[in-house]
Structures are given as C-alpha cells and as structure tokens.
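Page 42, continued from yesterday. The earlier attempt failed because a stray header line got pasted into the input along with the sequence. Redoing it now with the clean sequence only.
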Amino acid sequence: MTTTSPSTPSPTRKLERRLGDWMRARLPFAVAELVMFILKMGWASLFGALLLIAMIVTDHIWQDHWPVARYDALLAYALTLQILFLALRMESWREARVILLFHLTGTVMEIFKVNAGSWAYPGDGLIKLWGVPLFSGFMYASVGSFMARAIRLFDMRFAPYPPFWATMLLAIAIYVNFFAHHFLPDIRLGLFAATLVLFIRTRVWFHIGSTWY
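This time it went through. Structure tokens are written below.
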C-alpha cells in the first residue's frame, strides 16, 4: 500500500471527528457515512469551488471601465486563496508544491493551446504571457488541490500500484499527445486503453471515520 498523508495532522481533523461522531449518534450508520463522504468531498474541492464561483460572478458583474481588469482581479483572488489555505493549514507545503507543478504545467499548456488557435482569452489584463492570463493556471491548480486534499482527507491507499516507470511512461505519452496531436495522429483512445490496462488491478482504499472502503 502507498500512503500520502502528511506527518502533521490537519487542523480540521478534530472538527471532522466531532461532526462524524455527532451524526453517527443521530443517523443510521450508512446515512451518516454517506453524509460525511459528501461533506469531505466538498471540503476537498473547496479551492476549485471558490475559484469557479469567482469566475462566474465576475463574468456577470465586471465592467470594462473598472480600473482593474477581470483577469488580473481573478489572479489576485486566486493568490489570496492560496495564501489563506497555507496560513490556515488547510493545505500543507508538500501539497502546495504539487499544486504549483499543476499551475506551471497548466500555464504552459494554455500558452500552447491559445497560440495554436484552440481558444482565446480576449479580455484585457496586465498580467498575461503570450495572450494567456496567469490566473488560468489556477484552474489546473484547483484540480491538483482537490486531488491532494482528497488523498489526505480520506487517507487514501492505492494497492497494488503499477510500476512507477510504467506510470511515468504513460504520463509522458499523455502530455506528448496533448501537444503533438496538432501535427500527428491523435492517439488518446489508445492512451485511454493503456490507462485502463495499467490500473485495472489497482484499488483505492479510503476511510470515513474508522471504516475502510
């Protein structure tokens, strides 16, 4: 089994335990476990949810004549969220490093796709690289945040995990295809099949309260 939970306990652990104990004392066990699962999933996706809400709200209310461009405001908002998550220990520094990799990789992918004509960011913004506002990297970072937080909150184990070299080759092939399919045949269906074959024996173990699933 592989564990990814940090050595320092989350500050929300006691709150989760109290909430779980409170519900298990008042609800049927299965219902209490389902409610806790939903709450934990929502808590794990908090960064992405807050970013999505900000994108939707600003899209409806932002005015072109305002002194700060919408893309720049979203970048400041996302940076503030990240700082708060670290300051409140809702994310560990180890998780933050993983999320940073998602952000940097996502930004590179966005720059490539925008300049390949796949989509565009037509709005104004001072903080852009090759037509891509830097807040866009946080859309990828929010996925990394969810994955890192869910693995920790549910204390996930992956067993049996495929050989590391095989997962690295698959990951490299997926990223190469992301760029190369503009010039070469798209092999994503083959990569889907390879992913299924590689991980078909892997089980994700997680626990809610004291019960493993």
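Notes: The longest strand covers residues 157-159.
Reminder to self: strip header lines before submitting.
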